[in-house]
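Limitations

Structures in this collection are predictions, not experimental determinations, and the ligand pose is part of the prediction. Treat each record accordingly. The example that follows, with flavin mononucleotide as the small molecule, is included so readers can see exactly what is and is not provided: the inputs are given verbatim, and the output is the predicted complex.
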Amino acid sequence: MSRIGLFFGSSSGNTRRIAKMIKKRYDDATMADALNVNKATPELVAGYDFLILGTPTLGEGDLPGLEADCQQPSWAEFLPQLRDVDFSGKTVALYGLGDQEKYPEHFVDAMGLLYEFLTARGARVVGSWPTDDYDYIASRAEVEGDFVGLALDQDNQKQLTEDRLAAWLQLIARDFGL
Ligand SMILES: Cc1cc2nc3c(=O)[nH]c(=O)nc-3n(C[C@H](O)[C@H](O)[C@H](O)COP(=O)(O)O)c2cc1C
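Predicted complex:
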């Protein structure tokens, strides 16, 4: 089994593509293949001490899922299944996709929802990211002036994604033993 689990939800494929970009950088011993949460089980997630989790924000600041008009179940359906997983002792890094121009009052909110769920269950969340270079009004993923994970905007700032991702993976490398 790989050391780091990599799970994502995605409606139109952006978050999945980022997950694949992450996996590409590491061998199988280090990083598991990216897995959509609609194919994951709580036991699988619980088996990893290191996790990278990705989510888009849909609806108005919501997790992806059937109520947000996704074709398949996603984080909204999977997260409740993780309610009894003990995340203490686990290191988690989050990335979130959003659209700061169209949804400036809910930019990458869903990453904040994952953060709240995980920290309430003891996870150590690493990889907070500066809010400079983004233009939005409010985000549930902003805590004490930083995003709780990497915020990516494929709708308006696609050209920044590759560099942001590389810098963020560098940032979390030590915490993940990379
Ligand atoms: C119906 C709809 C609602 C959205 N709501 C939000 C939102 O509240 N906040 C936000 O930051 N982005 C929002 N977005 C933008 C998506 O998060 C963004 O396009 C993302 O890249 C989609 O990722 P995916 O392709 O993995 O589903 C919304 C997009 C759609 C289509």
